[in-house]
Design brief:
Blueprint (H helix, E strand, L loop, with lengths): L1 E3 L3 E6 L2 H11 L4 E9 L7 E8 L6 E5 L12 H8 L4 E4 L5 H9 L6 E3 H7 L9 H9 L4 H6 L13 H7 L11 H10 L11 H21 L7 H10 L5 H7 L22 E3 L6 E3 L5 E3 L22 E7 L3 H9 L10 E4 L1
Helix pairs in contact: 1-2, 7-9
The structure holds zinc ion.
């Protein structure tokens, strides 16, 4: 067992027996923290390196070497797989968008019972008009299109720019200036693309980093979880985990800057059975509330190119109505980045 920064310790599990013991210790808790490290997780060349698990207080942290423990048929891993699959054991994660896919690809295990603290953070920000940093985080990104937003404040409805774990911890004041992530490792992430996670033996600096992330998640959870009804966020977390059903989907979304935002139809559940519509930019199929809608204009008004994209939460169908072919989030990002349109962005009948 090695020490790790402010209060946390970890056990590096490099044998199947050690993985079994880790699962036995953690099975005493109905809530565990889960965090994954690896190269380009969720992308076509993505590969898991470490699965980090702990109790909610991060007093027992286990770092499982996935590259060494790669035989998914080894019975010693069964208790671990059970922990991951059981919906009644809550897994607290920070940004688990790639976990479902990576864990399924590596071990053939379906991760369930997840509460994503990134969504908890978003849902506890308060109104966008509030003057604190978290509440203003989305608005600041769209400063260059603020005139459009002021004309139609509802353009930002349901749009949330994500915070990183470190930034969130700093904003919540659960860490001081020296308590954040190791800058040497975050720099390596930027320059190396995460390939360092595939080196063996894994440097102590990376093990410390993985354990420290668990400690950060624990501290953030301590502050945020009492502020929400956790049960309400289970389904949203499950939707969040499914936004990248394939590695290609994430690869397509990164250059569009969509990975910086909570995807639409995640925090607010789409109405069951309601029709879904294709966005020509992000290529997701979304509920109608994610698109601008309007009444079909008369022939004389048809040429009016300045017609604003309206946000409308009311379900409108039939030829008397039209929707924009690109979702609200895509419209805002594309306008902010002065993006050249590559597809047909226009009004289309709501049939
Ligand atoms: Zn879109």
């Amino acid at each position: 067992m090695a020490t790790n920064g402010p209060g946390a310790q970890y056990t590096f599990c490099t044998t199947y027996d050690a993985a079994t013991r880790a699962a036995q210790v953690l099975s005493a808790s109905s809530t565990i923290i889960l965090h994954c490290q690896g190269r380009d997780l969720g992308l076509p060349d993505g590969e898991l390196s470490i699965i980090a698990l702990s109790d909610p207080a991060a007093s027992e942290v286990f770092l499982l070497d996935v590259l060494l423990l790669c035989d998914k048929h080894n019975p010693a891993l069964a208790p671990l797989f059970s922990l991951l699959e059981r919906p009644d054991i809550t897994k607290l994660v920070w940004d688990g968008r790639t976990y479902l896919l990576e864990i399924a690809d590596t071990y053939g295990v379906l991760l369930q019972g997840v509460i994503d603290l990134q969504l908890v953070e978003v849902s506890t920000r308060g109104k966008k008009s509030e003057k604190n940093l978290r509440a203003q985080h989305t608005m600041r990104y769209f400063k260059s299109v603020m005139k459009d937003i002021r004309n139609n404040p509802r353009l930002l409805d349901g749009i949330h720019r994500l915070l990183g774990l470190d930034s969130c911890a700093a904003n919540l004041r659960v860490i001081n200036a020296l308590g954040g992530k190791d800058p040497a490792v975050t720099n390596l992430h930027r320059t190396d693309g995460g390939s360092m996670w595939l080196h063996r033996p894994l440097p102590a600096m990376l093990l410390d980093y993985a354990a420290h992330d668990i400690w950060l998640i624990s501290r953030v959870a301590d502050v945020l979880l009492p502020r929400v009804s956790v049960e309400q966020l289970r389904e949203a977390s499950a939707r969040y985990m499914r936004v990248y059903p394939t590695r290609e989907a994430k690869e397509a979304h990164v250059p569009l800057e969509l990975s910086k935002f909570v995807p639409l139809d995640v925090v607010d559940a789409p109405l069951p059975g309601a029709p879904r519509y294709y966005c020509a930019r992000c290529e997701r199929t979304l509920s109608l509330s994610c698109f601008g809608t309007r009444q079909t204009p008369t022939e004389e008004a048809e040429g009016d190119s300045d017609t604003p994209v309206n946000v409308c939460s009311t379900v409108l169908t039939g030829p008397a109505f039209q929707r924009w072919t690109v979702c609200h989030l895509c419209v805002l990002i594309a306008c902010r980045n002065l993006e050249v349109q590559t597809g047909p962005w226009e009004w289309t009948p709501l049939l």
